[in-house]
Design a protein that fits this description.
Length: about 325
């Protein structure tokens, strides 16, 4: 027997200890090794804490046998005592298949979590997923927050397996007799994450040396600490500001990492749609502060108008 079973169970137990007897938690299960190992470990460890665990499998209806796979997950979880719900979703492909499926999945998870009054949603992301996220962020030129990867705990979402590898989860399943599913999409090279997993990371391991995934995950952890500290600093500044009318001289004295965070927050406060503000938008606004040459007003997502008037940065919400 390997150390996989105690490692996974201990990782799960550490997070269950943070909740109270009588709580209900939701676990998202695709049927893959990671989520199946997580669900099984939860079913065992939650008993001691008198916590109710309910499974959820989201049927994206993107593969011919998706409903059969969803039913298989239901039956697997029933075998070790977990009730499992199936949520069918229709994926509206607007931002690429992978991103659109993720959006539909999280919306479904959020709906079910609210319906059952879950205090937390457990997700099966691993150390390998974390490494892939960081490498993708580097390739896209992302900032500190994106490079910090996924948090162990964010809102209602808990990711207890971020220190566990995919290989450990597969070993866990084999040792506990769980028949896990290999999603064909996880081998489809049209997805950037799959190319990172099957091509980029193996090449890095071969040319630079072993331990790349561990190093990337460690970097994510360190960067998250930095990003959290910078966010906190920016939030303390924002308390004293009117985000729709700010003094440019004061903003210019702030470190750029703080200034750009305040700009982003201000744009969303003025009505920019969630996720719509890009680095280019922030840079254009910053130029009104630090590289003022009489530029005209900026028209940004959500109809937000930004202009410099008498040394002040003015943001005007969209008015129909």
């Amino acid at each position: 027997m390997t150390t996989a079973v105690p490692a996974v169970r201990n990782a799960v137990r550490t997070w269950l200890e943070k909740f109270e007897a009588g709580d209900t938690v939701l676990v998202a299960v695709s049927g893959g090794a990671d989520s199946l190992a997580l669900a099984y470990a939860l079913s065992v460890e939650a008993q001691e804490f008198a916590i109710t665990v309910i499974g959820l499998t989201v049927d994206h209806q993107l593969q011919a046998a998706s409903s059969a796979q969803a039913e298989k997950v239901v039956q697997q979880l029933l075998k070790f005592g977990l009730k499992c719900e199936v949520k069918k979703v229709t994926v509206d492909i607007k931002e690429g298949l992978e991103a659109s499926a993720r959006k539909a999945r999280y919306e479904a998870i959020g709906e079910v979590a609210e319906q059952i009054n879950a205090v937390a949603v457990f997700l099966g992301h691993t150390k390998d997923d974390q490494a892939e996220t960081v490498l993708l962020g580097l390739a896209r030129g992302s900032g500190t927050r994106s490079l910090s990867g996924m948090a162990h705990h964010s809102g209602i979402y808990v990711r207890p397996l971020l220190e566990i590898t995919r290989i450990q989860n597969e070993a866990f399943c084999k040792e506990t007799g769980l028949d896990y599913w290999n999603d064909p999409h996880n081998q489809d090279s049209q997805f950037a994450r799959v190319r990172v997993r099957t091509e980029a990371l193996p090449i890095l391991e071969k040319t630079i040396g072993p331990g790349i995934s561990d190093a990337l995950a460690r970097s994510a952890h360190l960067l998250r600490d930095d990003a959290d500290a910078l966010d906190h600093w920016a939030q303390r500044e924002e308390i004293h500001l009117d985000l729709l009318d700010m003094d440019c001289t004061h903003l210019e004295t702030l470190p750029r990492a703080i200034r750009t965070r305040i700009i982003r927050t201000a744009l969303y406060a003025a009505g920019a749609p969630s996720g719509s503000v890009s680095a280019d938008h922030v840079s254009a606004v910053e130029a009104l502060i630090c590289a003022w040459k009489g530029q005209g007003a900026l028209n940004l997502p959500g109809g937000v108008k930004v202009e410099r008037i008498s040394g002040r940065l003015s943001l005007s919400p969209h008015r129909p």
